[in-house]
Specification:
Elements (H helix, E strand, L loop, with lengths): L2 E7 L3 E8 L4 E8 L11 E2 L1 H19 L6 E8 L5 E3 L9 E2 L7 H11 L1 H8 L8 H11 L1 H6 L2 E3 L1 H10 L3 E3 H4 L5 E2 L4 E2 L1 H7 L8 E3 L4 E4 L2 H7 L6 E3 L2 E2 H8 L8 E5 L3 E7 L11 E4 L6 E7 L3 H11 L1 H10 L3 H10 L9 E3 L17 E3 L7 H26 L5 E5 L6 H11 L2 E3 L7 H13 L6 H8 L5 E2 L8 H23 L1
Helix pairs in contact: 1-6, 2-4, 10-16, 11-12, 11-14, 12-13, 13-14, 14-15
């Protein structure tokens, strides 16, 4: 029996899981770490926290599973995209990593657009200059922290920093690198034209691989720290959404998934490059060689519900602790008592600004229609509906691009809620499908890539099709009643856009 490990470096924590070749999860472990927000709209983390979490979780799954380290055929890495990790010539971290949800780089993105040209930038990188992407972060450090920039010799993405600590290699792969505004996405290589225009040294960037390529082996030092065997292959891996696609078998044209994690994503697989000329959704290289994806990313999906839990639902948290249940179960039960439309209350989920489809780092969250009659259940339902409406806006764009199917697999923490799944099906107007392996998502996808890298499977699509089985279906209900609220939702941001910008300047 062959065994693989998938390591998924998330925003709230790192999850490591150990699978056999049939996709069975034999052990998993998650270690959380903090997110720092030094200023409004900023988001940073210490890469050392990631490494400590990876070490602990790898050690734990080896111990819990009873699988010998010598039987591990490969390691796959997945993780949050777009983050900037800067290292000096000795491989030491120079500053906290700037994360995907950080919105400080508006001026730098304007500079990128001016230097390259919007149309050329989208033609090469398949995306406009976005505040979440890595290139703007590099220019921000150069402008605001020149002493750190002068010492920089290596630029890595979050999961690729784990690779460096495991293997000593400075490397990346096409799916994650697609979200940097530096990759020639149609040709799956670094764009020398973009790098020259932005005056970024290409020697700072990692060696490029396909996701299932061998991108290093575990060093003796890393083996000592993690319990792995020296020489264990480490695959290229994938960005979190590209890995989740593999873990949900979205590996062929006509397949898609929606995730309600910290962020909200709709991800459609394609065998050709399909680009939205307005840049409202993203086109990236897929983890399947010779394939691409069209995907949206809303920044505060599950994060919006988490924020509401932390700030307004202490009573539910207390009761949940007493009853031994998840606080979200009690919050959802309260939301179910509220009608469609949450008693005429709408929520805009722009707590971290917004990326898809609004491209506005200054957008902010809002409850609209709040009155003294509203209960916590109304607030919870309004947040769930607002997040669902944000996904509908993105799906409508993918439909116009011709890449959205009628059935979409749901994953992420929000997918565990039958109530939210039905709401999503009704709002999106499509069938939502689950998978028994949905919650394994990126970790399973990373492990499958490791298996292909190690020769356990012939190809990524074949492996995913063999391992991932479809689950239950949740069909859209006719006339569920969301349409008038969705129509009003789409008109709120244009009405508030100028107010958001004025507020940010006060």
């Amino acid at each position: 029996m062959a065994y693989m490990i998938g390591v998924d470096l998330g925003t709230s924590g790192t999850k490591t899981a150990l699978f056999d070749e049939q996709g069975r999860n034999l052990a998993s472990c998650t270690v959380e770490y903090p997110l720092s927000q030094p200023h409004n709209g900023w988001a940073e983390q210490d890469p050392e926290h990631w490494w400590q979490a990876a070490k602990t979780t790898i050690q734990t799954v080896l111990s819990k599973s009873g699988v010998k380290a010598s039987d591990i055929k490969g390691i796959g890495l997945s993780g949050q995209m777009h983050g900037l990790v800067m290292l000096d010539g000795d491989g030491k971290v120079l500053r906290p990593a700037i994360l995907w949800c950080d919105g400080r780089t508006g001026e730098e993105c304007a500079q990128i657009t001016e230097r390259v040209g919007r149309e050329k930038l989208i033609a090469i990188t398949a995306n406009p200059a976005l505040t979440g992407f890595t290139a703007g972060k590099i220019l921000w450090v150069r402008r605001h922290e020149p002493e750190i920039y002068e010492r920089c010799r290596h630029i890595l993405l979050p999961k690729d920093y784990l690779r460096y600590r495991l293997t000593g290699e400075f490397a990346t792969e096409v799916s994650d690198a697609s979200g940097m505004n530096l990759l020639d996405v149609p040709n799956r290589c670094w764009s020398r034209e973009i790098l020259d225009a932005l005056e970024i040294d290409p020697a700072w960037l990692g060696t490029m691989h396909e996701s299932a390529d061998l991108a290093g082996t575990v060093t003796a030092l890393a083996a000592q720290e993690t319990g792995l065997c020296p020489g264990t292959p480490v695959a290229g891996g994938a960005g979190d959404n590209a890995a989740a696609a593999i873990g949900t078998a979205v590996v062929r044209p006509g397949r898609a998934f929606v995730t309600l994690g910290t962020s909200g994503v709709i991800f459609a697989h394609s065998d050709k490059v399909t680009i939205d000329p307005q840049g409202r959704v993203h086109t990236f290289c897929a983890a399947v060689p010779g394939s691409w994806t069209a995907m949206s990313c809303t920044l505060s999906a599950g994060l919006s519900l988490q924020w509401l839990r932390n700030q307004c639902c202490q009573e539910e948290c207390r009761l949940a602790s007493e009853q031994g249940v998840d606080p979200y179960e009690l919050m959802t039960a309260a939301a179910q008592k509220s009608p469609v439309g949450a008693n005429r209350l709408l929520f805009l989920p722009y707590l971290m600004g917004e990326r898809s489809p609004l491209l506005d780092e200054k957008a902010r969250g809002a409850f609209v229609g709040l009155s003294a009659m509203h209960t916590r259940g109304d607030l919870v339902r309004a947040v769930m509906e607002g997040v669902s409406y944000s996904q509908r806006q993105c799906l409508d764009i993918l439909r116009d691009m011709g890449v959205a199917p009628d059935t979409i697999t749901a994953c992420g923490g929000g997918a565990r809620s039958p109530f939210w799944r039905q709401m999503l099906a009704d709002v999106l107007g499509c069938t939502i499908q689950t998978s028994p392996l949905t919650l394994e998502g990126p970790a399973l996808g990373a492990a499958i890539l490791a298996g292909v890298c190690a020769g356990v499977y012939d190809s990524v699509p074949d492996a995913a099709d063999a391992i991932v089985r479809p689950g239950e279906l949740c069909r859209a209900q006719a006339d569920a009643g969301y349409e008038p609220f969705y129509d009003l939702y789409t008109r709120l941001y244009p009405a508030l856009k100028d107010s958001f910008r004025e507020l940010s300047a006060l």
